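### Sample
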Amino acid sequence: MPLWLHQRALLTPERIAYETENSRLTFHELDQSARQLACILSSKGIAEGSHIAVLQENTLNFVRTQHALMYLHAICVPLNLRLAKRELSFQLADCAAGFLIADLATYEKAQQANTNCQLLTIEQLLEEATDTLPQPVLQREISLNDPCTIIYTSGTTGRPKGVVLTYGSHWWNANASLINLGLRETDEWLCCVPLFHVSGLSLLIKNVIYGMPVFLCRHFHAADVHQQILAGKVSHISLVASMLQRVLDDAGAARFPDTFRCVLLGGGPVPPVLLKRCLERRIPVYQTYGMTETASQCVTLPPEYMQAKAGSAGKALFPLQIQIDSGTRPAEAGEPGEILVKGPTVFSHYLNREDATRDAFTDGWFRTGDIGYLDADGFLFVLDRRKDLIISGGENIYPAEVEAVLRLDTNVTGAGVIGIPDSAWGQKPIAFVTVHRSDAFDADDLIALCRSHLAHYKVPKQVILCDELPENAAHKLLRRKLYERWLQENPSNPL
C-alpha cells in the first residue's frame, strides 16, 4: 500500500497534522520536512533494514524522525528516556543499532550510553543543507509484513525484550481503534504519553492514517492537560489511571466540555473509586487492555458499559480474538486463567529471542502472561500479571485486587502490593502506599479496611508509607522496584 505520510499529504495537504504549545504543522509541511530529513539520513549511511535507535523527547522532531525512517524503510527503535546508562547500552547492543539519533535534551545521556553506534543529534541534522546531497530513492510503498518498529518491553518484571512490530501490526491497530471509536471531522487527540511507548507511537500512526490532528505535549502536566481539555478542541486523550487521577484532582468541580468524547484508559486494572468519580462527572472513559506485543489496545470497554461492567477491560476489538487458558483447556465463564490473544495486530517476534518467541505462542495464540477471566457475556476482567501472582498457603492473591481496596481510602493516592517470603505460608502480601496527608496515615486502619473487603489470606500483613511509588515512563507501577526496596531493608530475607 502507499506509504502512510506520503498518501496523507497527497489527500489532505493543508490539514493540520500537529499542534504544540507554540506551533502548528500541516501534513504537507510534515511530509516535506520528513523527506528532507530522510535525504540527510541517507547521506549518513542509513539504509533499508537498518536498526536506528531514537532517544528523543515528545517533540515534532521525534515525529519527523519516525517518518523519515519510514521513507528509507529503516526500522525505528525508540528508547525509553528514563532508562539508566546500563539499560540503554544493553538495548543498543541487543538491537545492533548502527546509529543513535538523540536531541539536545538527551544528548548527554546518549553519549554516556553509546558504545558502538554513531551518535547524531536531530537539531544538527535539520540544520544541514540538502541542496548538494545526492537524492536517494525514497520509498513510496510499504508491505504490511515488513518490520516497522522495535519497541522494548517496559521491563516491569525483568530484562526487556525487543518486540518487532510490522507495518501490519500498526495498520490493524489503528483500524481496530477506528472501528471502535469512529472518527469525526472535529476530532483532535491530545498526546501526553511518551512517543517511545507503544501507546504514544500508536497515536503517531493514527495521525497519518486518520488525517486527525494531534496536540503533542512535551511532558505530562495535569494542569496543562486539563486546560487543553477545557479549551474545547481536544476530543480524545490516552492516559493511565494515575494520570487521570491527577487530571481530575486538578480539575476540581470543573465540567468537561461536550466536545470531549474519549479517555482511552490503559496501563492495568482501573481502581473502582476512580471509575466512580468518572461516572459521577459523566467523563467518557474507555477502559482498555493491551501491551507492546499487541501494538497497544486489543480489548476495550465502551462507556455505556462503565457501570454495568465496572472493572472490565471490555471485549476484543473487531479484528482480534481473546481466549482464557486454564492450563489444560479453554476456561469456563468466570474461571481465571492466562489471557491469550490472536489477530493481525500481534507482533511478529522478539528480537534475537527465538526461545522466547516460541514460548509466547500456542497454535497462533499469543500467551500474554496476564491472568484474567471472561464473564458469561464475554467481557474480559484482567486480574494481574502471572509473574506478580502471590501464592500464600496454596491460595492465589492478585496484587491489583488488594491495591484497589487500599485505594478506597480517600487519603491513599497510590498502592503497590508484593509477596514476600513466609516460612509458614510460602508468601505473604505486604503493601506500599502513598497518601495525600502523611499525618492522617494509619497502617492499622488500612489493614482493617482490607479485612472488611477481602478474604483473610489476601490482607496485607504490613502497610508501608512511601514518598512515591516507582513507575516507568508510561506511569505503570514498577513492582520489581518494590521488591528491590524490600531486599535493601531486609537483606537477611532473600526473595
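The radius of gyration is 23 Å. This sample (2-succinylbenzoate--CoA ligase) is used throughout the tutorial notebook.
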